[in-house]
Design goal:
The complex is a heterotrimer of chains A (342), B (319) and C (258).
Chain A: H1 6-32, H2 40-65, H3 73-89, H4 94-117, H5 122-141, E1 146-147, E2 159-160, E3 173-174, H6 175-193, H7 195-212, H8 217-243, E4 245-246, H9 253-264, H10 276-295, H11 300-332
Antiparallel strand pairs in A: 1-4, 2-3
Helix pairs in contact in A: 1-10, 1-11, 2-6, 2-8, 2-9, 2-10, 3-4, 3-5, 3-8, 4-5, 4-8, 6-7, 7-8, 9-10, 9-11, 10-11
Chain B: H1 6-25, E1 35-40, H2 47-62, E2 65-69, H3 77-90, E3 95-98, H4 108-116, E4 120-124, E5 139-143, H5 146-163, E6 170-175, H6 183-197, E7 202-208, H7 213-226, E8 232-234, H8 238-250, E9 259-264, H9 267-274, E10 280-284, H10 286-302, E11 310-312, E12 315-318
Parallel strand pairs in B: 1-2, 1-3, 3-4, 4-5, 5-11, 6-7, 6-8, 8-9, 9-10
Antiparallel strand pairs in B: 10-12
Chain C: E1 6-15, E2 18-28, E3 33-37, H1 44-52, E4 59-64, E5 67-69, H2 74-79, E6 82-85, H3 97-101, H4 112-115, H5 121-135, H6 151-168, E7 173-177, H7 185-200, E8 204-208, H8 212-218, E9 221-226, E10 229-235, H9 241-249
Parallel strand pairs in C: 3-8, 3-9, 6-7, 7-8
Antiparallel strand pairs in C: 1-2, 1-4, 4-5, 9-10
Helix pairs in contact in C: 6-7
Classes of the chains: A mainly alpha (342), B alpha/beta (319), C alpha/beta (258).
């Protein structure tokens, strides 16, 4: 029997397509945008640039995985950043401020989850929450942004493991990327290796299945919002660290970027299936393209346009591959009188 | 439609509105026979404009005007037109200050009706916007002088580059997104002034500064990394300039060794100028604008047949 | 005489003026499998839903192993030992068969990792293998996502999932709604054998189906509904295809005493 048949190929493309794309892009730009692109400096910069987007992408992904689209993410991020900022400016120790911001995220997530359970459309609920959090954030600061939060630089603009010379400190891993690594590693372990993770994904894929076996599906739907809120708050914190300030204005752009990264990684927005690592790769692809085009001094409009085209291609591709896989797999697997070898 | 770039205008207005409201409401009360004027912005739902109304009421009151709110147009130009015309017909007001809710042309006939009844107005923009070819009796036009702003910024950039002995240095140009109000004028005049006063300075790279502060900071940082020798960075918003400061610091360099020029003038940006992180910021002085609007209205009410003026929002360069 | 596993007496169900079920008496003993037959709209799915707790009857009495119960939701019937396999199967497509089979009963690792919820995948696949073996359900690849399985194999996973849960309870009751719709011949044989095996273990099985050969092969008894009324209740061995078809279509009048 052939080892590499068309089904395996399709499955490979589905699982690894986005990573292959990233590698190809890196190679392409290293040649095309030499010498600046293919340097450690620049890769370090790409990691940093992708970080904030990757954290918000993870927030949105967690919601999507469990079957909910959380549009309140920018508002939660804003209010979390403001919370930390206000506390730091009031003299509170940094760890307390960070903890408070994260708790705010969890509370908002729980609120979203519980209200959705009453049967209201989660989309509408989270939009409502977005308005509320933006409004509260504006009231707390009188509409003005906070600044002077350099003390958060350890998780913002600092880099670690620098290996540059002559005082060039670009090389090294940006602090923000460490946060990304922690989020993605913990998240992936949770989703793939724990019982909670399995049930969490099941709640997004087929909540009815959980109910049939007596598991409380609602618990996991709420958990989806809580995780999304927590990660949104973390995103707000990292943004505040990066810009040394916090703005009460909800940056709704993060929704678009996050959804793009999630959709680009071939994850069905209907929920239930998900691979966090692919989301990270998706975020890196977007940052790589932006970096390459900028170095080439190409009109910024092209970055947006190309990302849009890739997004549509990714969605169409995911759909087509999914159908092809199902068709080929089904024709292959038939029950025979004798057990097939596993 | 509400043009972009008005965001920084609104932030400025908001702070002014708050200040003016508190400082002027405690001043002398309006006289019993105070003239009534109306405020008609594009929408009262925007907190900055609501704040502006408070400021207008406060300062106007201290000068003897009775300031009222026109019904909320909420971005509907037809409604704004009808509401203003009702106020005109009723004879309720002696004048008004409006920010067009949509295409200013819609208000041309309204202004003509006002002129017939001797009612005066301060409106935003220039005569051409409203379909007039020159100055009009009883109407004063107020605009942001984008050309002047851009020119001053270019001049400052040239000064800074020369003072840092970088007369042949390079500049990173932070562009506004397409559709931003005044983009062509500001950016064009900036480049012209820079070319005139520092002819050997070149703009080596252009980045689009759009989105929130973090995004703009990232864009500047990438530009710095791609053009590491550039010494000048210009942005046309506070976020862009402050993002440039953070980006320079994150790259391990000192902002004082750079020529960062911005526009806006919020508190954080002014503080950055004082800390020598930003060389210069073009600040629109909305407090002065409010004052000149009120003073102009009072003067016009006294003499409605005289031609109005073209005002600009006063601009200061903070450095 | 042993107690019936499930006994429905005088079940009425009205939707406004429509009588979906009219005075239906239905009983199944432990270890017995009963086929519930009837044309479209005869009320067999509705009756099944009453048994599963998804619909509340307008009037009538439900008794499970002698206990009079009222079902307010499918949860109540599940608590009473009744498992149902719906036509929609409710499988988690992206996960593999082992995970689907053991959903809600995941096997945790030993030691501290297990305390925080880490799964032992190897053990789960082994367990799933053993369970499907025991039931005689053949699933080609337990580690392949179920969306990649054929309709018949997915049916197998859904059946096995319910069957394992129902054998876990003493004298469980299994309700099947059109289990062989869209199945090939070999898979139908698998379903028949599964039902027979479950019966032999003391499980009561109620089988709603259009598939007469399946009913004749797998059921001890047949009940036919026509327009919400029970018209026939016979031992399989006492009847023929033609008779059953006659009751279904209404060609034959209802039996006496239904």
């Amino acid at each position: 029997m052939k080892k590499l048949d068309s089904l395996s190929l399709l499955v490979f493309v589905r699982n690894w397509g986005i990573t292959v794309l990233l590698v190809l892009l890196l190679a392409l730009f290293s040649i095309w945008a030499a010498p600046v692109f293919g340097t450690l400096d620049n890769f370090s910069l790409i990691l940093g640039n992708a970080s904030i987007g990757a954290i918000f992408a993870a927030a949105i992904a967690m919601g999507v995985f469990s079957g909910a689209l959380d549009l309140s993410v920018p508002g939660t991020a804003a209010i979390a950043g403001i919370t930390a900022g206000l506390m730091i400016n009031a003299g509170q120790p940094v760890p307390i401020a960070i903890a408070a911001a994260l708790i705010v995220g969890i509370v908002i997530g729980a609120f979203n989850g519980l209200v959705s359970l009453t049967g209201l459309n989660p989309l509408v609920v989270t939009i409502g929450t977005l308005s509320i959090t933006s409004g509260v954030a504006a009231i707390l600061t009188g509409g003005m942004p906070l600044y002077g939060l350099e003390v958060l630089a350890f998780m913002g603009t600092d880099t670690y493991f620098k290996i540059g010379t002559d005082g060039e400190v670009f090389a090294g891993i940006p602090a923000t990327f460490f946060v990304v690594l922690i989020v993605y590693v913990l998240g992936t372990i949770f989703l793939t290796k724990t019982r909670g993770g399995v049930r969490f994904l099941a709640a997004g894929g087929n909540a009815e299945a959980l109910r049939r076996v007596g598991v409380n599906a609602n618990l996991y739907r709420v958990l989806g919002f809580v995780l999304s809120g927590l990660l949104a708050a973390l995103g707000g914190l990292v943004t505040a660290a990066y810009t040394s300030g916090a703005s009460p204005a909800a940056a709704t752009g993060v929704l678009f970027d996050g959804l793009t990264a999630v959709a680009l990684s071939g994850i069905s927005l209907a929920g239930g299936r998900g691979s966090l690592p692919k989301v990270l790769v998706g975020a890196l692809v977007i940052a790589t393209i932006a970096s390459g085009l900028l170095i080439l001094n190409i009109e910024p409009f092209w970055t947006v346009a190309i990302t849009g085209v890739m997004l549509i291609a990714a969605l169409a591709g995911e759909h087509a591959i999914g159908k092809a896989v199902a068709k080929k797999a089904v024709t292959k697997s038939t029950v025979s009188a004798h057990k097939e070898s596993k | 439609m509400f043009a972009k770039g008005t965001k920084r205008v609104l932030t400025g207005i908001a702070s002014v509105g708050l200040i003016a409201a508190t400082s002027f409401t405690s001043a002398a009360p309006a006289s019993a026979a105070g003239d009534t004027v109306a405020f008609s912005p594009m929408s009262f739902q925007i907190p900055a404009l609501a704040g502006m109304f408070e400021g207008f009421k406060g300062y106007g009151g201290s000068q003897g005007l009775n300031v009222i709110q026109a019904p909320d147009a909420n971005f509907d130009p037809t409604k704004q037109k009808q509401d203003l015309e009702s106020l005109i017909t009723n004879g309720t007001i002696k004048g008004w200050w409006s920010l067009a809710a949509g295409d200013p042309q819609v208000l041309k006939s309204t202004l003509q009706k006002a002129q017939e009844k001797g009612i005066v107005a301060v409106v935003n923009g220039v005569p051409k916007d409203y379909g007039f070819s020159g100055m009009q009796p009883g109407i004063t036009f107020a605009r942001i002088n984008y050309e002047y702003e851009g020119k001053q910024m270019g001049l400052e950039m040239a000064r800074c580059m020369n003072s840092l002995k970088q007369s042949s240095g390079t500049v990173i140009f932070g562009a506004n997104p397409a559709g931003t109000a005044g983009k062509a004028e500001m950016e064009g005049e900036f480049k012209a002034a820079l070319a005139k006063y520092a002819p050997k300075v070149k703009i080596v790279r252009s980045v689009l500064l759009t989105g929130d502060r973090a995004k703009q900071q990232t864009a500047v940082r990438s530009a710095i990394q791609a053009s590491p020798k550039a010494i000048g960075i210009v942005a046309f918003t506070d976020e862009g300039a402050l993002g440039a400061v953070s980006a320079v610091k994150a790259a391990g360099k000192k902002p004082a060794n750079y020529c960062i020029v911005g526009a806006g003038g919020g508190d954080e940006a002014i503080a950055a100028v004082k800390a020598n992180n930003i060389h210069a910021v073009a600040k629109l002085n909305f407090e002065a604008d409010l004052k000149q609007t009120v003073d102009t209205l009072i003067a016009m009410i006294k003499n409605p047949k005289a031609n109005g003026k073209q005002l600009s929002v006063p601009l200061t360069i903070v450095k | 005489m042993t107690t019936a596993a499930l006994n429905l007496e005088s079940i009425d169900l009205h939707y406004g003026y429509v009588k979906a079920l009219d005075g239906v008496n239905f009983k199944v003993m432990p270890g017995e499998s009963v086929a519930l037959l009837g044309d479209n709209g005869a009320g067999k799915s509705t009756l099944l839903k009453v048994m599963s707790g998804a619909h509340r009857p307008t009037s009538g009495k439900i008794t499970v192993h002698g206990d009079h119960l009222e079902f307010h939701s499918p949860r109540d019937s599940a608590a009473a030992g009744i498992e149902m396999v719906y036509q929609d199967l409710a499988l988690v497509d992206a996960q593999d068969s082992a995970t689907n089979l053991l959903l809600g009963r995941e096997i945790l690792r030993r030691g501290p990792l297990g305390w925080i919820g880490f799964i032992d995948r190897k053990k789960m696949v082994q367990e799933a293998d053993a369970e499907t073996d025991r039931l005689g359900v053949k699933i080609a690849n337990l580690t392949r996502p179920v969306e990649m399985l054929s309709g018949g194999q997915r049916q197998g996973v859904a059946l096995a999932r319910a069957a394992v849960r129902v054998t876990g309870k003493a004298n469980g009751i299994l309700l099947l709604d059109e289990p062989t719709a869209a199945l090939g011949y070999e898979q139908k044989v698998m379903v028949e054998k599964l039902i027979q095996r479950l019966s032999s273990e003391g499980i009561a099985v109620v089988l709603v189906t259009h598939d007469l050969p399946l009913a004749f092969n797998a059921a001890h008894r047949m009940v036919v509904l026509n327009r919400g009324r029970k018209v026939c209740d016979v031992k399989t061995s006492d009847t023929t295809y033609e008779q059953i078809v006659g009751y279904i279509t209404g060609a034959l009048p209802a039996q006496v005493g239904m």
